[in-house]
């Protein structure tokens, strides 16, 4: 057996930790809702964000998770909603994903989201739409792990998803199963 002689970096080195995390590809989603009109805002306002730390959790009950930075100014506006729309970005939506990660007042410029009666919002042309409610929030270091319970969904496995890997967007490659 070959011995590993490459040095390991300490986990408290943020650069090394980010490089290690970037080795794992993840799906990218948008979490959105329409905030109702208020005294200060005469019409409903779209609220949303991109999240690259998205994972499926459970089939029974149907759960997914997103990780949100503790400093997020958007999550407090989303968490108070009765329902949230989670859109799994399609491969061609990289620019839209960046836009939803940008300045809050410009996130929905040029976007016509699909709005549900309860306020959940979905992005058109996404690979999947998940209508969710917040099931739990678990503090985890500088983030909060948010468990979302899926109430309704639609999906199209034929739509290629957007994948985030090594700090950039990538495409998936279908590989043939080996005969054997």
TrEMBL record:
<dbReference type="InterPro" id="IPR012349">
    <property type="entry name" value="Split_barrel_FMN-bd"/>
</dbReference>
<keyword id="KW-0560">Oxidoreductase</keyword>
<dbReference type="InterPro" id="IPR050268">
    <property type="entry name" value="NADH-dep_flavin_reductase"/>
</dbReference>
<comment type="similarity">
    <text>Belongs to the non-flavoprotein flavin reductase family.</text>
</comment>
<feature type="domain" description="Flavin reductase like">
    <location>
        <begin position="21"/>
        <end position="171"/>
    </location>
</feature>
<dbReference type="InterPro" id="IPR002563">
    <property type="entry name" value="Flavin_Rdtase-like_dom"/>
</dbReference>
<dbReference type="Pfam" id="PF01613">
    <property type="entry name" value="Flavin_Reduct"/>
</dbReference>
<protein>
    <submittedName>
        <fullName>Flavin reductase family protein</fullName>
    </submittedName>
</protein>
């Amino acid at each position: 057996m070959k011995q590993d002689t490459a040095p390991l970096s300490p986990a408290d080195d943020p650069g090394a930790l980010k490089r290690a995390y970037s080795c794992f590809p993840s799906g990218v989603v948008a979490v959105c809702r329409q905030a109702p009109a208020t005294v200060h805002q005469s019409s409903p306002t779209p609220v949303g964000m991109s999240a690259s730390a998205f994972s499926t959790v459970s089939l029974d009950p149907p759960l997914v998770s997103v990780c949100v930075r503790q400093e997020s100014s958007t999550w407090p506006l989303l968490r108070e909603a009765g329902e949230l729309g989670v859109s799994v970005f399609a491969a061609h939506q990289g620019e839209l994903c960046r836009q939803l990660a940008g300045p809050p007042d410009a996130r929905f410029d040029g976007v016509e989201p699909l709005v549900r009666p309860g306020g959940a919002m979905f992005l058109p042309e996404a690979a999947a739409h998940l209508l969710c409610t917040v099931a739990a929030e678990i503090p985890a270091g500088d983030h909060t792990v948010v468990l979302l319970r899926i109430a309704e969904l639609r999906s199209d496995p034929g739509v290629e998803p957007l994948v985030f890997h090594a700090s950039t967007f990538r495409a998936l490659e279908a590989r043939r199963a080996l005969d054997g």
